[in-house]
Specification:
By secondary structure, the chain is an alpha/beta fold. The chain is 30% helix and 13% strand. The protein folds into two domains: 131 residues, Rossmann fold (3-Layer(aba) Sandwich), CATH 3.40.50; 159 residues, Rossmann fold.
């Protein structure tokens, strides 16, 4: 299979049938959709599979082994794009992995695909798909959609290969304080407390952040006393970020793309949940991954203030979770001494 790349023009005509997948969302969303993408690849081996999503995710799409090219598409706030720059004949198959409609349904229906695979919605009664369950885990959701259309899909089929190239900080604990919304950002002071404790034990700590999170990364680095070389701001290119995560001792973050990348690469992780529970976005059952969550009512995943459930997670709990990841499996119930901060 050819590596996925951002679409630069119309595809060659008269070649393979084409299957269009709409998932114009972020890194974590794409990684949660990997099992469904691979199921589509297996079910349509002779098709060109085109992913409508952000152009910057083309390297990630290539790493899945399930996507031939990316058709750039995105909109602010996880919204459905207004249009798709599709060229040539209609797609033979279109698959809505973006949402439950009707805007995403209509966007794909406007292309007049030969077949549309999507969840049912009262606003688009012509789509005879399975029902949408709001509390369903994201990986399970899209696999169930395909299974309903006769395409077997395994939610556990989510691992990515280790990227080529060296890690900028092999063996470090990676802290990623940012998230797509303030409601999913754990306080930077608590990340700093975790970093200081880990460094006191001789563990290297590095901080990562997105392209617009330079101030957040710099603040955490300053509070934790990290050297400039361990503050990796500016949004690392996928290959470098994946190498960093793949060779990390562990990754600590909120419910965001880096957490899903750690799961995909098999790196131990501690993920801090709130306002959305891990039952909907958490890692699969695996001793390498710990999901921290204080049960309570769901909050707003796009809210402007840290969610109360997230704020109930303490630095000690994060350190305890890291301690259990470090311990042999038979000793993982042994508590870590409390942090004095």
């Amino acid at each position: 299979m050819h590596p996925a790349h951002a679409d630069a023009g119309p595809p060659p005509q008269g070649t393979r049938p084409r299957l269009l997948v709409l998932r114009a969302l972020g890194l974590g969303d794409l990684l949660a959709g990997v099992p469904a993408l691979r199921a589509l690849r297996r079910a349509h081996p002779g098709y060109e599979i085109v992913l409508a999503g952000p152009a910057e995710l083309a390297p990630v799409a290539a790493a899945t082994g399930a996507v031939d090219r990316v058709l750039p598409a995105s909109a602010p706030g996880r919204a459905v794009p207004r249009r798709l720059d599709w060229t040539g004949p209609p797609p033979d198959v279109a698959v809505d992995l973006h949402g439950n409609g009707p805007p995403s349904h209509r966007l794909l229906m406007d292309l007049r695909p030969g077949r549309l695979l999507a969840f049912a919605h009262p606003g688009t009664p012509e789509v005879a798909g399975p029902p949408w369950y709001a509390e369903e885990h994201e990986r399970d959701r899209w696999c169930r959609l395909l299974t309903a259309y006769g395409i077997p899909a395994d939610p556990a089929d989510l691992r990515l290969p280790r990227p080529d190239g060296p890690s900028p900080a092999p063996g470090a604990v990676v802290l990623h304080p940012g998230a797509g919304a303030p409601s999913r950002q754990w306080p930077v002071e608590r990340y700093a407390a975790v970093a200081r404790e880990l460094r006191g034990r001789g563990r290297r700590v590095v901080v990562t952040g997105g392209a617009d999170e330079g101030d957040l990364v710099a603040r955490l680095a300053a509070l934790a006393g990290l050297p400039d070389t361990d503050a990796l701001a500016g949004g690392l290119p996928y290959a470098r970020l994946a190498a960093l995560v793949a060779d990390a001792h562990a990754v600590v973050s909120g419910d965001t793309g880096v957490a899903h990348l750690a799961v995909a690469l098999g790196t131990p992780s501690v993920t801090l949940f709130g306002p959305v529970p891990p039952s909907r976005w958490g890692p699969p059952p695996d001793p390498r991954h710990r999901a921290l969550w204080h049960p309570g009512p769901d909050g707003d995943p796009h809210g402007r203030a840290s969610d109360p459930a997230l704020l109930r997670i303490t630095a000690d709990e994060v350190l305890d979770a890291l301690h259990t990841l470090d311990a042999p499996s038979e000793a993982r119930t042994v508590p870590r001494p409390p942090l004095d901060v």
